[in-house]
Write a structure and sequence with these properties.
Layout: H1 2-20, E1 26-28, E2 31-33, H2 35-47, H3 52-60, H4 63-96
Antiparallel strand pairs: 1-2
Length: 102
C-alpha cells in the first residue's frame, strides 16, 4: 500500500532530521553537538561502555553543562521512542489487515 510506504518514508525523514537537529541545540567548545552525538556520549561514556574520551568529556563538564547535555540525551530518547511507536502502529495495521498477503 502506497499510503503505508509513504508514512514509513516520512517517519524515516523526520527521524533522520531529529538525530541531527533535535529540540535543544548545544554548542560546546565551538562545536555543535547533535542529539545523536550527545546520546553517544552518554551511552558510551557513562551508562554502558567505558570510552575514556567520552567519559572524560562528561566528567569535565560544568554542572549546568552536564544538566543541559543530559536533557538533550533524555529528549532524544523520548523522541526515538515516539518514532518506534509510530512504526509499530503502522506494522500493527499492516498485520491486522493482512497487507503482507497482497
Amino acid at each position: 500500500d502506497n499510503f503505508i510506504k509513504n508514512e514509513l518514508i516520512e517517519i524515516r525523514k523526520l527521524w533522520l532530521n531529529e538525530k541531527k537537529v533535535g529540540g535543544i541545540k548545544l554548542i560546546y567548545n565551538d562545536k555543535k553537538l547533535s542529539p545523536e552525538e550527545t546520546t553517544n556520549y552518554w551511552i558510551n561514556g557513562f551508562y554502558f561502555h567505558n570510552d575514556m574520551n567520552k567519559m572524560s568529556l562528561l566528567n569535565n563538564l560544568l554542572c549546568h553543562e552536564k544538566i543541559i547535555l543530559r536533557a538533550i540525551f533524555l529528549d532524544h530518547l523520548i523522541q526515538a521512542t515516539k518514532y518506534v511507536f509510530a512504526v509499530g502502529d503502522i506494522l500493527k495495521k499492516v498485520l491486522n489487515e493482512n497487507m503482507f498477503l497482497e
